[in-house]
Amino acid sequence: MAESRGESEIKSEQRRVGLLYDERMCKHHTPNHEDHPENPNRIKAIWNKLHTTGIHQRCVLLDAKEVEDEHILLVHSQKHLKLIKNISSKQFDSRRARIASKYNSIYFNKGSSEAASLAAGSVIEVAERVASGEFNSAVAIVRPPGHHAEHDEPMGFCLYNNVAVATSFLLNEKPELGISRILIVDWDVHHGNGTQKMFWEDPRVLFFSVHRHEFGSFYPANDDGFYTMVGKGLGAGYNINVPWENGRCGDADYLAVWDHILIPVAKEFNPDIIIVSAGFDAAVGDPLGGCCVTPSGYSSMLKKLMDFANGKVVLALEGGYNLESIAKSMLACVEVLLEDKPVVGSSEAYPFESTWRVIQAVRKELSPFWPTLAEELPKKLTSQKAHPILYVLSSTFNSDVEDNEGPNVVSEKFEEILQDVIEPLSKLKVNEGQVAGSSDTWRSDLSKIYIWYASFGSNMWQPRFNCYIEGGQVEGMTRPCSGAVDKTPPKEIMQKTFPHRLFFGRDFSQTWGHGGVAFVNPESNIEEKVYMCLYKITLEQFNDVLLQENTRVALMSSPLFDLTALNSFTRGETNSVEVNLESGWYRKVLYLEKDHGIPILSMTCKLSELEGFKSGELSVRAPAEGYAKTLIRGLVEGKQLSEAEAIAYIERAHTRPL
Ligand code: X5A
Ligand code: ZN
């Protein structure tokens, strides 16, 4: 038939895209099917999405292949290979969990060895076929992921470093394919620590990773992902890290990094193939990532990569834990590889100011190796920045706050803040002279919204928490609280536990005197449990609690934590927001989950301080005596624990390092 021939002609012009999925990689799961973000449903969800849209029919489908030992040994130690190969055998049944617990964020079961072998073998399989020209590009929907896996240890849900194995395979085992330079683009929200180390001194591999870093407080929580880590020896300059200073980064931030770092460098490097460590945990909605890259953002990033290496691009799945987000993101990528539709630049949003700062720092650090980066970015460009969602507390300028910066600095700061506030305000629609959400109506606006405030410290004892609402002072407190403006008692109270770690830090508090106060580690960990007492109060009251937790200043002209911030939680864009206060120990608002549609919020120290506690720079220490007594009272009266259990729980929290 003429018509179908016409169609097949179009097809033959279409790009050949390899697509690998194999159910056998679902055999790796937690030993007793406990919940875990890295679970078999991830790859099933992606495969189902590609299937229901029918796009899989337009790709060349491939089955997974087990990896050869010698290919693993290109990047891993003999000991590591043995560990992963043997961990599933019968004689390890009783020891498997104990072995896993020795590693960082690792579980094993009897299917782990096979799945890990298939994941690594599959990335080799697709990479070889793209390198040889059999396919234009390819996607490997694999798990377990790989980029955290180190030469000699599994880590961060990763067993073998799949992308590193395939990279090394092409360079060292297949010289006939003519691949001499490989660009690895790691857009997983976490730093690809394993991959970085494996090619640290290798100029044939340009490793590029963009990830949340927050000065070393985001997983894997060290300095390996900082932009000063550029490689060594012949490999110097061939390792590029773009470390975000905060979460909530989205399309605009990623695309600015592409345009001003990755793409110019890729032009000079001129790779023969690109392998993407394609985690989708920077996607909007991801429970671990806290960033907000959209499917269209991933399309744009991928499209820009296809201008290199004759379009030879391989995508290997890494992280990504929201099933819907990862499925949609991967679908968008496959559409780009098939060259379905033109990719239209998506957002009108601007990058964060911190994004420009990081881009400029990276460019400066790498410019000795990549002259194209030496040029200064135009001010006109870098001044296009998103206004932060944080609000300015008028009392920041009170004499109360320590000011050792001199008068000019203050007025400069004012200018900066004015710019941030006036610019977005000018874009707001003004209705009959009233600006939506203006500062004089915030109390009545926020008084209509209920949240759960989840307390884990002395506030678990209800009479103590009541001081923050009604004002006053109970036993053990060295000074009274002023209370909230709205003194209505909590609408409801309930007890609940969460998978976070409680710890005690600091030496002194205004309210309790000498000794540590309670914090939670915002990273969730299924092995941990923190007891919390939840109070249903209004968002207005929550702001008054937040202020009292942090300062003695009573005046608040605009909310510390407003609706925009709350929406960024409920839309899944982020799990934590830092409030704009100069001082205070609870400047991070955390989003735990929702209960019947009502968000549960808590507060803890800033991430930079958490890092201090982790490194030992700030020490975990025993709570003040009166403070500990109040916590125990809260736990016992709230019927969460017996007195003995409560004492043991507090003891454990301040005696273990973070
Ligand atoms: C592959 C990946 C994340 C590990 C987080 C551990 N790993 N807390 O996304
Ligand atoms: Zn990740």
TrEMBL record:
Keywords of the record: Chromatin regulator, Hydrolase, Metal-binding, Nucleus, Repressor, Transcription, Transcription regulation, Zinc
GO cellular-component term (any): cytoplasm
Cofactor dependency: Zn(2+)
Catalytic activity: N(6)-acetyl-L-lysyl-[histone] + H2O = L-lysyl-[histone] + acetate
Enzyme class: hydrolase
Location(s) in or outside the cell: Nucleus
Domain Histone deacetylase: 36-337
Molecular-function GO term, any one: metal ion binding
GO biological process, one term: epigenetic regulation of gene expression
Family from the record: Belongs to the histone deacetylase family. HD type 2 subfamily.
This protein's name: histone deacetylase
